[in-house]
Each structure stands twice: as C-alpha cells, then as structure tokens.
Amino acid sequence: MHHTLRLRGRERAENLLKRAQFGLARITRIAGAKRDAFFVLGDALTAVIACTVASALGGNSSLSSTTLLGGLVTAAFIIAANVTLRNYRLAWVTFSLSDLRRLFAACVLVAATHAGLRAIPAWTGLVPAGPVLTGMVLFLCLATFRGSKRLLVEPFFAPAEGRRTLIVMSSRHAYFLPNVLRRLGNFDYNIVGIIDPNPAQVGSYEQGIEVVGTTDDIEAIVERYRAEVVMVMLADDPGFGLGDFYARLHRLGTVDVKTLPSLVDIIEDRSDLGALEKLCIHELTGRPPVSTDVVAMRRVFGSKRIMVTGAGGSIGSELCRQLARFGPESIIMFERDDSNLFYIDRELRAAHPRLKVIPFLGDITRPEDTELACGRHRPQVIFHAAAYKHVPILEFHPEDAVRVNVLGTHLLARAAVRHRAECLVYISTDKAVNPSSVMGASKRLGEMLAAAMNGLGDLRTVAVRFGNVLDSRGSVTTIFRDAIARRQPITVTHREMKRYLMLTSEAVLLVLQAAALGKGGEVFVLDMGNPVSIWDLAHRMVELAGLTPNRDIPIVLSGTRPGEKLFEELLTAEEGTVVTENNRVFRARISRNLCYPDLLAAINNLEAQLGLLDPQQLRQELARLVPGYCPDPCPGMEPTASGQRSKTGDRSPDSGAALPQSALGELVTERGYGLL
Prior knowledge:
Number of strands: 21
Family: Belongs to the polysaccharide synthase family.
InterPro entries: NAD(P)-bd_dom_sf (IPR036291), Polysac_CapD-like (IPR003869), Polysaccharide_Synthase-Rel (IPR051203), SAM-dependent_MTases_sf (IPR029063)
Largest sheet: 9 strands, mixed
Oligomer: single chain
CATH topology of the largest domain: Rossmann fold
Distance between the termini: 89 Å
Organism: candidate division WOR-3 bacterium
Keywords: Membrane, Transmembrane, Transmembrane helix
Strand content: 5-15%
Low-confidence stretches: 22-31, 269-281, 636-676
Number of domains: 3
CATH architecture of the largest domain: 3-Layer(aba) Sandwich
Radius of gyration: 35 Å
CATH class of the largest domain: Alpha Beta
Number of helices: 22
Helix content: 40-55%
Strand order of the largest sheet: 9-8-7-10-11-12-17-21-20
Pfam families: Polysacc_synt_2
Shape: elongated
C-alpha cells in the first residue's frame, strides 16, 4: 500500500515537472517570437522613415504614394537582409560595434538592391532617391533605433555612491572593466579615474572616464582623488613593472588593492597565482621571458624519435608538451608512476591526435627497462629528466640518490650507446656546483658520467644546468601559493636564502635550444637572471595576492634544512662561460673530462658498496668521487652565508677551491683532468 502511494506521488511529481518544463519552453518561444516581431515592425517603420528622409534630401519634398511604396519595398529588403545576416539575434541592451558592422552590411545589401532596381525602367519609381543616399540614411536610422536602449540604460555619469576606485590599465584587456563595473548596478565601486602607464594617454577619456595619470604618480593620484580601491588587471607584458607598483601601493596603507587575472588567463583556466609567479620572475630577476624559434626547433627535432625519462614529472611532462609542437616522429614517455604517465599520455593524445605517443612504464634503475625502451623504440634523441630532487629527503637517503641519479643515468646512457641513439640530454641542476648536499653531488656525478660517455658509439651527450623551477611540484612558489590560498603562515628557512628561479616552460625551451647547440660533451648553463631572495619573494607573492604580509599572512623563519645552501651557484670559481649563438644559453668552460674507463671503475665500486655502507659512509664515498663535495657529518647544521657548512677544512667561499681529494680525486689531479 505504502509502496503504491509512493509510486503515485513520484509519477505526479514527474508529470508536474514535465508540465513546468513544457510551459517554460513555450513562454521562451513566445517571448522570442514577440521580440522578433517587435524588431521586424521597428525595422519596417524605420525603413519607411529613412526612405522618406532620403527622398526629401534628394529633392523630392512631397510625401507621395510612390514614396510610401518605396519605403515599404525598402522595409521588405532590409527585413530580408537582416534575416539573412541573423541580425534579429542581436541583443538590444548590449548593442556593440560588431553588431553595428553587421547592420551596415545589411544596409549595403539594400543599397545594392536599390541600384539593381533603378537599372530596370519599370521599377525606377519605387526607388525615388539614389541608392547610396538611401543606404546611408537607412543605416543612421537603424543604428539609432538599435542603439537606443543602450543609450538610455547606460548612465552618462558614474554614480557618486560606492567606494572611490581607480582602475590601472596594465593590460590591453582591462579596457572592458569600466563598462562592466558601471553596468553592475549593485557593485559597490565608483570609478573616479583611470591610470595608464603610457603618458600619451593622460587627459584622454576611456568609456567616459578620464585617464588621470600614470603609474609613476600613483601616490599623488590616490591622495588627490581620495581613492579607497585600486583595481589592477595583471599585465600580459611582464615589462610593465607591476611588482614595484604593488609595493608602493601597500606602503600607502590606505588603499585596498584588487588584483584581477587577465582575460587570457581566465580563458586558459589559469586565473590563479600562477600569473603572479610569472610577474615575480621578471620583477625580481630583471630578465624578459624566454621565447623560441619554432622553425629552428622543427629542423632539429622534427621527424625524430624522442624519448623523455621522468615524463610524468614537472620537467619531463613539459618537455613532452614542447617537443610535441615541433613535429617529432614519435615521443616515448618513460615513467615509473602509472598515474602520472596516464595523465600526460591522455593530454598529449588529446592535444596532438596525429602524433605517435608511446607510454612506457618503467624504472630507470632497472637495466631490463632501459634496454627494452631503447631496443624496442630506438629513440634518436633522449632527454633524461628522471631524478630524485628534494635535498632534505636525499640527505637521509643517499643510497636512493646514488641508485637513481647516478646508476640510473649510467644504465640509460649504456642502453643509448648500444642502440645507437644520436643524442642524450642530461637535465642537471645548480646544486651540482660546489655541492653541499647528496642530491647535488649525485647530479654532479651524473654530469661527469654524461661527459665521459660522449663519443661512445654514435652518442653525443649534453648536460644542462638550471635552478629552481617555479611551477613544479614542491617548488617554493607552489608551497607559498598553497599557504596564501589557505591563509596560513608562510615559512622561509633563512632570511638570507636566495635561489635562481625560472618557470618550467622557460627552462624547457632553453634546454631544447641548448640541445640543438651542443656538439658533444658540453655543460650548458641557462641565463636565469639574478638570484632571488626567498624572503622578498614571500612578501611579494602575498602583496600580489592583494594581501598584507604579517597582517593577513604571517611570514616566519623556520631554520635551514639538511644539505641546504643559502646561495646556489651556476658555475664554480674555476669555470667560466663561453657565449653561444643563443644569448640565453652559455657553455661552461670546463677543462678535460675524466675518461670513461676510469670513471666506470669508480662507479662500479660505488655500486658494489650500496647496501654495505651506512648513510654517512656513503656520503663520504661520494665525496671521494666528487671534488668540492664536503658532506656534513651532522645534517641540519646552520650553513654559513656563503652557502658552505661552517666546519673546519671547508673550502674558501671566495676561491671555490676544492678540499683535498682522495681516490678518484687524486687520479684526476695526477692525470690533469679538470672535473670542475
């Protein structure tokens, strides 16, 4: 019984819902039909008036039946033209210049039809005025009719109520803001002026609002107009200088700063602090964004079989995305995390349906995987991005760092030689220079391996160093962004901490250009601008989010982590740079590299001791292989300002000279090989 009642109740509810939907659709159709009928009648009346006015301007001042008949014929023509051009779908209240162009096209069609009728003697009387004059008058009348509602609805003057607001036109897309804000009647903003970086625009008007000054005069303008809010749309051109502009606004302390993403970022679903990261880079490093020559890259990588290890990581996935643009024959994505591999595989297939995308689930430390990948797919170019990268973690897991960053590199390079790959590009790091951590030492040893194996078989090897990438997982800005979004404190390890910073997309583009430039055995260094103060970066990111540091978001010092330097370096004191064809890529001037047989013996010895040595002993063994690496017996000690551990026997921070070396270091000294 109860079940039957429930079924009947559900049926009644479904019937009511269907009736409501049918009624709504009917109302919509009726409303649409009424709207169309209104515009058709309005166009017809406007056409009759326009034809009469045109006839009077043409010298026929009397209102005759021929003139009225000509007006009706013109009305029929303009209705037909508007139907053809879908001008009855135009919104009345938002009538715009693009709508005006479509209306002009309809009037041109009418004028052309009039010209054709005048060529027929029997029809000449129906077109009393000239076709050009009739078309012009018709266009003016229709434009007035169609734009009338917008003229009446939009206010001529900004409302006096609301918070007094200045709009900064830092982007070409920002010019839509005044109209949008004024048309939102319940928006609590009274726009009192526009600020434009271009001095030539001062005194002009944008959408009825005066351009009152430039960003150079922001303090005086805020005071003069008693502004309470400054709205800024993020600039598309990072050369605008918005970072300093924000700092000046926050120093005033009396104005609320609103940050809006650019339209491009909104469309591309990037309307978050990612745009602020790009801004921070230019403001803090003083360098322009990286660009690339797509044609040149196509010549190098087009029609090539390319393999990327660590393809699911931050650098590896971006390498896959960029390489896919240059027309390779195939991209083999080598990755051990099946989820990461799934996502990048799906992304590439959707973006490049004609590209041959080969996902390969494998581990760089397993020789059977590297052999199978290189043997089955025969890559011509290999980008080796698979690595362990987190400094504090690897300080306590040196065996894993050696296994992945050193032995994995060796396995891959040997497979590349055996299967006649043309080029191996080793992704290195600034932490490999005068390493103070296990991670840096393992990456430096990887550089040495890559250089020693250059020329074996057909293989050409290239290593590329760069610093921190901002939008990678676990990067400093990713951590800061998450803290800002959650309104949690930002932790900085040391007030003097500095890092080289670059976007992943920028780093990858320069890696590709370095790979194209390399002749074999080189270590390339990317131009990363000036090192960035992490303390300043934290403050700047909070400010760019429209917040106040230490009021809205606390910034606290947490103490340095194991293996961490205060300053990173891209070159040692002994190294210099040689310019290349690309002014953003430099070749490190390194003396002769160690020959492969000597290095192979040392690597084999290191591998044999894995599992037998405790972490500190393994760090000491690494120090015997990597000149300049002095492991800290007590991980977590406070580093000195030069980035070195404050222990006796450390190298001088000024000279960059290495500690006395044993084992392989002595071999290097004897045979005159300069590893640094």
